[in-house]
C-alpha cells in the first residue's frame, strides 16, 4: 500500500519522531498540524537528515470540528493508506471549544472520531488506523454520559484519561463495524515530551527529577510504528515490544456501542 500516512500532532514529541521514522522507511507522510510554522520547521529539519523524504504538511486543529472537516475535504480518495491519531492534549482547565465540547475531549476523542469517519469512504481496504492511548485509561472507567464533562466534573488527569479511554472504545467499535480496516492501539508508556509538563509550579522540578527517567519520544513511538506497518487484523494493543490482545478490562462491546451512538448524536452537525 503506497498511500500517504497521516500523522496528527507532528510538530514535536512522538509525532515528529514518527514522521522521521516513517520517512526513513521510505513512506510518504502527511503531517496534520494546527501550527503550520512549527510543522514546517520539523519538516525542514527532517529533510536535512533525509533529503529524499516525501513529507507534506496540512492544517488540522482538532479543537475545531470545522477545521477537521476542511482537512478531510482536502484528502483525495485513495491517496491515504493510514492514519496515526497521535495528537493529544491535557488541558489544565475546563475550556469549551468553539463547538461547545470540552477541549481535552475534542482533541483526543471527538476530533479523531470525526476525522476517521469523514475519511472512511476515501480509504482503501486494509488501511491502518492507529490510535495513541495511555496507561491512564485503566484508572478511568467511562460511561456515555461522561463525554462532555462540566466544569464541576472536570479534573485535568481524569478528564484526559477518560478521553483516551473513549478513543480506545471508538477503535474497538470501529474495528467491529469495518472489518476491512486494520485498527490498532498503541501505548507509549511514559515519555519525556512537552505533554508531561502539566502547567503546574512543580514542572521545573519534574524536569530535573522525573523527565530524565522517562522514555525518549523516539523510543515511546516504537509500538505505534509497529502497529502502522503490521499486517495483523484488528485489534492489537501495542505496548513495549509486544502486540497483545486488548486487555480484558477494556472489553465491553455494549458500552462501545452506546458510546458510538451517543457520539453520533453529539457530532451529527459536523458529519
Ligand atoms: N508523553 C507521554 O508520556 C504519553 C503517554 C501516553 C500517551 N501519550 C499520547 O501520545 C501522543 C503524543 O504525545 P507527546 O507525548 O508526543 O506530546 P507532545 O509533544 O505534547 O505532542 C502533542 C502534539 O499534539 C498536538 N496538538 C495539541 N493540540 C492540538 C490540536 N488542537 N489540534 C491538533 N494538534 C494538536 C501538538 O501540537 P502543538 O505543537 O500545536 O501544540 C503536538 O504536536 C498524545 O496523544 C499523548 O496523549 C503520551
Work out the number of β strands.
Answer: 8
CATH class identity: Alpha Beta
Radius of gyration: 17 Å
Question: Number of domains in the coordinates?
Answer: 1
Share in helix: 25-40%
Low-confidence stretches are: none
Terminal CA distance: 27 Å
Overall average pLDDT: 95
Q: Specify the CATH architecture.
A: 3-Layer(aba) Sandwich
Quick structural summary:
It contains nine helices and eight strands. By secondary structure, the chain is of the alpha/beta class.
Can you lay out the helices and strands and say which pair or pack?
Layout: E1 4-8, H1 13-24, E2 29-33, H2 36-49, E3 55-59, H3 65-73, E4 80-85, H4 103-119, E5 128-132, H5 156-177, E6 182-187, H6 203-209, H7 217-220, H8 222-229, E7 236-239, E8 242-245, H9 253-267
Parallel strand pairs: 1-2, 1-4, 2-3, 4-5, 5-6, 6-7
Antiparallel strand pairs: 7-8
Helix pairs in contact: 3-4, 4-5, 5-9
The protein binds NADP nicotinamide-adenine-dinucleotide phosphate.
Residues 8-9, 11-15, 34-35, 38, 60-63, 86-89, 107, 132, 134, 188, 190-191, 193-196, 217 line the site of NADP nicotinamide-adenine-dinucleotide phosphate.
Descriptive overview:
This protein has 271 residues and is α/β, with parallel strands linked by helices. The protein has a single domain (4-265), classed as NAD(P)-binding Rossmann-like Domain (Rossmann fold, 3-Layer(aba) Sandwich). It has helices at 13-24, 36-49, 65-73, 103-119, 156-177, 203-209, 217-220, 222-229, 253-267; strands at residues 4-8, 29-33, 55-59, 80-85, 128-132, 182-187, 236-239, 242-245. The protein has an 8-stranded mixed β-sheet with strand order 3-2-1-4-5-6-7-8, with helices on both faces. Strand 7 and strand 8 form a beta hairpin. The protein starts with a strand and ends with a helix. NADP nicotinamide-adenine-dinucleotide phosphate binds next to helix 1.
